[in-house]
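The records we work with from here on pair a chain with its fold. Taken together, the tokens spell out the fold as the letters spell out the chain. To see the layout at work, look at the sequence and tokens printed below.
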Amino acid sequence: MGRRLLAWGGLALSALLLAGTGGALLPRAHLAWRLLRAADDPPALARLRLDPVATPERVADEIDAAVAAQDDTLARSFLDLADGRGIPVEAARRDRVAALGEGAPLRTARAFADGALTGRADSGVGLAGAFAADLTGLGDLRDLAREGGHLLRDEPADTVLLGLAGVGLAATAATYAGGLGAVARGGATLLKTAHRSGRLSRPLAAHLARLARESVDPGAVRAMALAAGRLDLAGARTAARAGLRTGAVAELTALGGRAYALQGRMGTRGVLQVLSLARSPAEIGRVVRLAEGMGPATRAVLKLLDRAALVIGAVLTELVRTVGLALGWCWGVTLFCRRLGLAIGRLIWAEPGRARTPRGAGTGSRAPSTIAAATGA
């Protein structure tokens, strides 16, 4: 009897442990499994991770911050995110976003001039100015003259600007001829703008520096610098076309093309935001997929989630561990059910070794042998 009570006590304790751990573990394991399945699907990954952070209070604060920074595309992106997720936004806050268009003409003229003269831009208009200067070749010539002068004097020079200016000069002729030149030209301008503004993440900046060094032959860089010093645009363009290295240029052009495609979807500030987050060209490709799935809300998603919108990251090990613990819990439930079934079976059916025979059966079975002994049979 004591052993039976001990067995049932152990079963009761196991049931309590399984119930207590399952309530906390199973929801986490379900979310971890969904995150692991969405690891290669940026839009699905972002939607799963938005639930705990896209609160009405957080969205309202981000809209106010975007309005204060006069970042109308980010403010509208948060409105799109709120509308898509059913998050209420006050009418007064919507009116402030709409009012960002006031005073736009003066800001537009200043931004265009600054982009054309310096190559720095944080808006579409400023990038248009930089693009206009680069499209004529004057922007690339300006960069070559400034950085090439340092190179000719054996002073530290910005090799990224030199490489991108060389690629840009070669792409300008292709732009006039049509084809993919416009994409290469726009991509080179975008990368120059991001690099000059310090908006590239460190890993991406290092990758871009390597590509820029490998794209143009060192001798051609000096030839371009000499031509730029004489303001010889045709000579600089000829040296650029002669000194380009096909393999590295193709990779650099692909990187710039992805950035150029994002600029059309997210605006200049949006693509600069992406270039500050992404650590490799592959991650820029993931942002392209994210933008295809999230639409105008992409900038808001990146602002809320940062790199968590692109990759699972350092939590991968914890996710796998959580799923493993859930599988172990399920195995524990299986063993518990087996033991419980055996215990219930023992209660209902007696064990075969313990079955007793009736008293009369034993006497009857011995009677024939007793009679035989008495008769001498």
About this structure: The chain has 18 helices and no strands. Residues 1-39+316-350 form one domain. The mean pLDDT is 77.
